[in-house]
Design a protein that fits this description.
Two copies of one chain form a homodimer. By secondary structure, chain A is α/β, with parallel strands linked by helices. Chain A is built from eleven helices and 14 strands. At the A-B interface, α7, β14, α8, α9 and α11 of A face α7, β14, α8, α9 and α11 of B.
Chain lengths: 309, 309
């Protein structure tokens, strides 16, 4: 039996406009992007809620790829919806509408078999719910957690409590700055380490990601892409690749965490090459490995001890 | 006799305000930052102009470190002055004043011994002057060139002519976008390649730098610094480290160009750790090598062929 990998997060319907096209009520949400990427490397157990209007075909496609849906609750009402528009160069986006729907009353309940999960990712939801999920997991080997500015401001105390119970906080650079109150991203990462987690992962969008622990910093750049269609979900695909690589290898050594960062960055790069989760649907393990090797070439240089004279 | 390394550029008096302090009429300018970094690795020949008010002590200090000043012309009038203010997080700056002074009438004239230079860096000055310098160099092995938005708009035709005569265009990301008219930085780099240079180097400030040729892309991140005092001159220090490493090794293979990028990034990191050129004055070759090794650790990961299963 393979090591359990659990994700809790949103299962949403996204309506996104980029300069290259639009989607309307397309399957999305942190748990969906995480799963679509993660399942390429390792089976994923998903916990979330959908409304009575959610298209089941999208979830069935995930199930066919190795995602266990037994933790997806179906509730009466509308599914979570998110609507956003990106700037011409995709460097910023504006959220036009957020409708919680059935997500407002969501209280995650783990199926018994999910409670043995060894690798747990708490997607960006209310920290109270994230803590509630942790209570239901028996003995995880590694817990990573995302959050967002909304919770940093509205539920800071609960978030700080949560930090004491997780191994990795995984946020974007703006969130790290908000949480720590420090604009220097490396100081912000160390601020997090002083509040519980052993590691901070900072997602930097087109500039890649950082892994910071007390002793070292690891940087993976973003993959050089001449065509980017939709940045939505890149961070969750990164998380899915990162966590699924760790689960598939069941190795939390620092050397393996560095590799996991690169698998995460590879998944992020596939995610942005198409709209929604489509970019990930056709990606094979061989594709991922080829891109990981390309990352190696991207940053590789030999030392030249002795030169210059 | 060592291989000649020539820089032409501004020799300025900078008045800079950051959240951490201010300078007034401090030695600066592209040729000065380039030389202060480059001379740690290799002797530098500098071509530029100063006014009658320029403090000679600063230049004498460079001379004592291996910079040949015989191409520095002293003209009657005021030295070039630049005044700027950085934002609280150093992410942007506003130019408050630029006074060309003697720089307005500057026509670079190379001392005879400089005409044998093998490595030539054309700092950010009028492309007409950059072309004039190239005419005076006999047989360079590698020519790199910087420019800025002002020349991209006011002297585009001359700049395009210049591109046909250089090996590397080295600009920041905003300049690459302006020049190419493309916001995607990788497409912008390839646009440059279609207009003459064999390589494009794109400086990305706190996000490092890219080296792009027709076949490959190399990325060096910026060094993780918890304290940055003054970003002024980081790009020119990068150029100084890059070019001086190439000159010191006299090797323009792609493997060596990658190493040169890392030496450049190391110099950029020293430059920003203090105000003005001060950060570079006390840096030794051992310091640089140690930082280059730290860069290796920053990005290093091992491939895991065969995993995940």
């Amino acid at each position: 039996m393979s090591v359990g990998l659990l994700v809790v997060g949103s299962i949403a319907l996204d309506s996104v406009a980029t300069p290259f096209g639009v989607t309307a009520d397309a399957p999305g949400g942190s748990a969906v992007f995480f799963s679509a990427a993660g399942t390429i490397l390792h089976p994923v157990q998903i916990v979330g809620v959908i409304g009575s209007d959610y298209p089941l075909g999208a979830l069935k496609a995930l199930e066919a790829r190795g995602v266990d849906l037994s933790g997806v609750e179906r509730a009466a009402g509308e599914s979570f919806r998110w609507k956003a528009k990106y700037s011409y160069d995709l460097s910023s986006r504006e959220t036009l509408d957020t409708r919680l729907g059935v997500f407002a009353q969501f209280r995650p309940k783990l199926p018994e078999k999910f409670r043995d999960a060894r690798y747990v990712f708490l997607g960006n939801i209310d920290p109270e719910l994230q803590l509630g999920v942790l209570d239901q997991v028996k003995q995880p080997a590694l817990v990573a957690c995302d959050t967002m500015n909304y919770w940093i401001h509205s539920k800071r105390d609960l978030l700080l409590e949560l930090l004491r119970h997780i191994d990795i906080l995984m946020v974007n650079d703006a969130e790290a700055r908000e949480l720590s109150g420090d604009w220097n991203i490396y100081r912000a990462a160390h601020w997090v380490l002083e509040h519980g987690p052993r590691m901070t992962v900072i997602k930097q969008g087109e500039h890649g990601a950082l892994l910071v622990n007390h002793d070292t910093t690891f940087k993976v750049p973003a993959y050089p892409l001449q065509e980017v269609f939709d940045p939505t979900g890149a961070g969750d695909a990164f998380a899915g690749g990162f966590m699924a690589y760790l689960a598939s290898t069941d190795d939390v050594s620092l050397a393996n965490l560095r590799r996991a960062m690169v698998y995460g960055a590879a998944m992020g790069s596939f995610a942005v090459e198409a709209f929604g989760v489509e970019g990930l649907a056709g990606v094979t393990l061989d594709d991922v490995r080829a891109r990981v090797r390309a990352f190696k070439q991207l940053v590789h240089f030999d030392l030249d001890e002795g030169k210059p004279a």
